[in-house]
Design a protein that fits this description.
- The structure is a single chain.
- The strands form two sheets. This protein has a six-stranded parallel sheet, with helices on both faces. The protein has a two-stranded antiparallel sheet with strand order 4-5.
- Helix 7 links the parallel strand 2 and strand 3.
- The longest helix is centred in the N-terminal third of the chain and has 17 residues.
- The chain is of the alpha/beta class and 245 residues long.
- The structure holds 2'-O-acetyl adenosine-5-diphosphoribose.
């Protein structure tokens, strides 16, 4: 039995809308055992702040450390399974052809769950690119050196993620903003709504007349502006919302 009420006004809106946009943050992967971004320093990594690891300067200072932190996170993610929240968004995409899933997560769990239309604003740790050429690298020779070297230019390899201080793909941002402005309903799930430009997307939707729904156990800068707020876990709330949709 759901322990939260879904207002009939929202149920009516859910059934009426044709175009839906969803923004997710690391909170949707928390129930899969993937630490949220601001907790992603469990264990031996706890003495580092993400800001000290996820920057080009940190990579220049100590590329081995940064590569090993991402190797640890890749292992975590490989063991993780999509949870009921991820699967609810797959069902939602199946039911609403005009559906856009925008994620800040780099764990690839939305695609593994089965979502196809995913905009990865911050990249994906399962992909690798050359630090010097900024071009994707699929295969390389393991020589035991970390980070490994680019087979084309010999430069160091790095994860294909956006680091602090780096720019996002203008094409990805453009698609995310367009979807946020044209949707009739915007779901913001499991994000602290602190990091721009992703954090501005729910407000774009609001300003363009969409119904905005937030799912997060904690308050965020969006909470006082959203039409509906569910202070709880995505794994429980999203499947219930989609069941009634
Ligand atoms: P945060 O760690 O900042 O926030 C995670 C949010 O998820 C918090 O507000 C939690 O309350 C919430 N949360 C935790 N468990 C949840 C659950 N089971 N269901 C729903 N919500 C839950 O992670 P993000 O908001 O994703 O960017 O961080 C955004 C960006 O900040 C990251 O993508 C990263 C970082 O800078 C880059 O690395 C470029």
């Amino acid at each position: 039995m759901a322990v939260f009420e879904i207002p009939s006004k929202l149920i009516e809106a859910l059934r009426r809308v044709r175009e839906v946009a969803v923004l997710t943050g690391s909170g949707i992967s928390a129930e899969s055992g993937v630490p949220t971004f601001r907790d992603a320093r469990a264990g031996l990594w706890s003495k580092f702040r993400p800001e000290d690891l996820a920057t080009p300067e940190a990579f220049q200072r100590n590329s081995t450390l940064v590569w090993e932190w991402y190797a640890w996170r890749r292992e975590l993610v490989a063991k993780a399974q999509p949870n009921a929240g991820h699967l609810a968004l797959v069902e939602l995409e199946r039911r609403r052809p005009r559906f856009t899933l925008i994620t800040q997560n780099v764990d690839g769990l939305h695609q593994r769950a089965g979502n196809r239309k995913v905009i990865e604003l911050h990249g994906n740790i399962t992909r690798t690119k050359c630090f010097e050429e900024d071009v994707a690298v699929e295969t390389w020779t393991e020589t035991g050196e970390t980070p490994p070297r680019c087979p084309r230019c010999g430069g160091r390899l790095r994860p294909d993620v956006v680091w602090f201080g780096e720019t996002l793909s203008p094409e990805a941002v453009e698609r995310a903003v367009t979807a946020s402005r044209s949707c009739e309903l915007f779901l913001s799930v499991g994000t602290s709504t602190l990091v721009h430009p992703a954090a501005a997307l729910p407000f774009e939707a609001l300003h363009h007349g969409a119904t905005v729904v937030e799912i997060n156990p904690d308050p965020t800068p969006l909470t006082n502006h959203a039409h509906h707020v569910f202070q709880g876990l995505a794994g429980g709330i999203l499947p219930e919302l989609v069941r009634l949709w």
